[in-house]
Each structure stands twice: as C-alpha cells, then as structure tokens.
Design brief:
- This protein is of the alpha+beta class.
- The protein has a single domain (2-146), classed as Aldehyde Oxidoreductase, domain 3, CATH 3.90.1170.
- It has helices at 12-19, 52-70, 100-117; strands spanning 2-6, 26-33, 37-38, 41-50, 74-80, 82-85, 89-97, 120-126, 131-134, 139-140, 145-146.
- β10 and β11 form a beta hairpin.
- α2 packs antiparallel against α3.
- The chain starts with a strand and ends in a 9-residue tail after the last strand.
Amino acid sequence: MRAAIVERPIDVTALLAEVASPAHGASSLFLGTVRDVNDGRAVSGIEYTAYAAMAEREMGRIIDEALARFGDATIVIEHRVGTLALGDVSVAIAAAHAHRGPALDAMRYCIEELKRRVPVWKRERYADGTREWVDPTATTVAAGGPAGTEGGTDA
C-alpha cells in the first residue's frame, strides 16, 4: 500500500507492477486526465497544488478504509502536482485483489473519497489566457457530478 503526491509524470505501468501478485486475479486502474473543456470553457491546462503531508496521510487513511471494506487488496494512489498539459494524468489509482468485484469497488471508493477529502487544489488555465481556481465540491450538470471528477477536467 502506498499513497504519494508526486511532481513527475505518473508511470502507470509501474503502478500496475506494484500491485501485481500471483494471489491477485484482478487489477483495476483509474486514471484522471486533464481534458480540454470544463463547463463549456476551453481549457489549456491545469495547475495543481497540495498540502502534501496532509494529503498523503489522508490518502493513506482512504486506502486503510478501502482495505477494511473490500478485503485483502493491494492499492497504490499517486496524485500529481505542478503544471499539467491536456491529456496528462493527474491522479492514478491501482487496486488488485483476488476477484474483480472487490478490486473495482476498492478503486472506486478510493477516487470518490480522494476527491471529497484530500487537500489538493487545482487552477484551470483557459484558452483565453485566464486562470481560475476550481471548487472540487461544486456540481456541474455536464460532468454529472462534482467538478473535476470523471467528466471534469481531471479525475
């Protein structure tokens, strides 16, 4: 189990290798990426910042909770900070378990709780040259959930 705030590109292959085990029959992977439009505005990139020590502690708690709920799994979470371009991976969660259901459930639990609780902030850069902090708890109709979640500009 590992949770980290990183300043480098996320190596998805390394994360999957980290959770791999002959005991695991299923691995699930979530990737949150920077997309080009949010709330009808053209996005050119995102700047992430975090209170790293607190964020890593909270992500560790989320992993512990997922293990308590979904059983013997291996979970790794990385969230990137800094300036990210369109298509860059901002957050990755790899979860492996003996069975697919718990692997998928643990991964989904982790991303939902991360977006709700972890102190990571983002400022979108728009194509018109403006920048704006995004409230991760605000809901948008287009995204079908909190801004910045699956369907927002990042995870």
